[in-house]
Structures are given as structure tokens and as C-alpha cells.
Design brief:
By secondary structure, the protein is of the alpha+beta class. The protein has eight helices and eight strands; from the N terminus they run H-E-E-E-E-H-E-H-H-E-H-E-E-H-H-H. Strand 6, helix 5 and strand 7 form a beta-alpha-beta unit. Helix 2 crosses helix 5 and helix 3 crosses helix 6.
């Protein structure tokens, strides 16, 4: 991936901008969009700053140049006078500030995500994809649009040390140690949710896997196997136009 040249960016920041802009374009191609809403953030390595989308732009419009650099206090560093979504800062800034190992946070309002978030049963161990997340999903109750500092401690407490969260009656969130991990977790969470909703729509009896099998499968997907996104992200960058 070519690093964007800019007198005001280090090569590290330029690379981060390229990676995040690509992630937005890929999310748009996969339909993980909600007009100008929802957000993907990426920390600039070695700094306290992170990048997020400029409020008012569609995912398709995101470029390395128009991504907004902000600090953990929500101050816009560059581009000067750029607007950000306050809810995006409240959610993403809280996680980046509290979880130093997390570099990328993805939040979506997809149809499958919103539908599943409204089900009391949550994500059931119906498929191999769903078992990946067995007992590894955090939940946060809906309190309205996240515009208040008061909600951030509850959000962080509910997330704990997990990397996947269902925001009830709202949508999905993944938090990755790399951008590839956050993206890959979201990809398979979306796919597992969609499969469950299709299965439930048939009104046929559901074959729910046992706790033992579900846990075993989740462990097989764990870091002893391979960190999520390690291979997938490079493959996505090589084959973007074929997706």
C-alpha cells in the first residue's frame, strides 16, 4: 500500500491514514453504511491521537486527506475546523483511552446488526461463525444516542476486556489490536447474525450447538490458532476490486 506524502504527516501517520481510508471504502462496498453515521477509528501508532471520519461524509467519500486527527479529549488536530460526530468520539475515544492495546474500533448500524441487537436471545451458537464468539461478546443496554460523558464508564465496564460488543437495540462494535482484527471480527459477526436471522425466519426448529462444542470451537478460533485478521487483511488489500 502506497503511503500518502504530506509535509505535515509522518510516514507512520500516512500509513495509518491509508489503512483507515481503505477500511472505510471496504465497509462501504460491503454495505456496512448508514449514510453519514457510524464510525471507524484507528490510533496513530506511537501517539495519543486517533483518526476518525469527518462528520457529513459518506464512507465512500473518505480519503486519507479528509480523515480527522483528534486527541483523547476530543480536540480536533487536523484538518483544522473539521467536524466530527460527537457520538463517535464518545464511543471511540472512551475505548481508545481505556484500552491501550486496542488500535481500531468499528461501529455499525447494519440491518442484521440492529435486528440481532433487538433479540433477547442474542447471538445463538447455531453456526461455526457464531461459535467463534461464544461467551466472548459484551452487551451494553441502550440509553439513547451516546452524547453524554456519563455513559462512557458504563460502556467501558460492559466491554471489559472483550473485543466484540452488541449494543442492544442499536448495533455492533468490534475493537481490534490491529485494523485487520477489528475488521475480520466484524465481518464474521455480521455473517453469523445474518445466518441466524435467516434460520429464525424459516420458523423451523433450530439446531443449537452444545455449550461444550461451542466453547471448543471458540478456543479453536483463539490466538493459539492465529490472530484474527493477520492474513485476511492483506488478502483484502490485494483483492479489493474482486470483492
Amino acid at each position: 500500500m502506497q503511503i500518502v506524502a504530506s509535509k505535515s504527516w509522518s510516514s507512520v501517520e500516512g500509513q495509518a491514514r491509508e489503512e483507515l481510508a481503505f477500511c472505510y471504502r471496504l465497509a462501504a462496498k460491503l454495505g456496512w453504511t448508514d449514510l453519514i453515521y457510524t464510525h471507524i477509528s484507528l490510533q496513530i501508532p506511537g501517539t495519543e491521537y486517533f483518526l476518525i471520519n469527518q462528520f457529513g461524509l459518506l464512507f465512500e467519500e473518505i480519503t486519507p486527506e479528509n480523515l480527522v486527527k483528534i486527541d483523547l479529549a476530543g480536540n480536533v488536530i487536523a484538518p483544522v475546523n473539521a467536524r466530527i460526530n460527537l457520538a463517535g468520539y464518545m464511543i471511540h475515544g472512551a475505548i481508545h483511552g481505556a484500552r491501550p492495546e486496542i488500535t481500531c474500533v468499528i461501529h455499525t448500524h447494519s440491518e442484521a446488526g440492529m435486528a440481532l441487537s433487538a433479540l433477547e436471545c442474542g447471538l445463538l451458537p447455531l453456526t461455526q461463525h457464531a461459535c467463534r464468539f461464544y461467551n466472548r461478546i459484551a452487551f451494553h443496554e441502550y440509553e439513547g444516542i451516546v452524547l453524554s460523558e456519563d455513559e462512557r464508564p458504563r460502556l467501558l465496564e460492559d466491554l471489559g476486556n472483550k473485543r466484540v460488543m452488541i449494543l442492544k437495540n442499536h448495533g455492533f462494535l468490534t475493537a481490534g489490536r490491529t485494523i485487520g482484527e477489528a475488521f475480520t471480527l466484524m465481518f464474521f459477526l455480521e455473517k453469523a447474525a445474518a445466518a441466524q436471522l435467516v434460520a429464525q425466519s424459516t420458523y423451523q426448529p433450530l439446531k443449537i450447538l452444545s455449550a461444550e462444542v461451542a466453547e471448543h470451537t471458540a478456543q479453536q478460533f483463539g490466538d493459539d490458532f492465529r490472530p484474527a485478521g493477520q492474513l485476511e487483511w492483506e488478502a483484502l488489500k490485494r483483492n479489493y476490486h474482486n470483492i
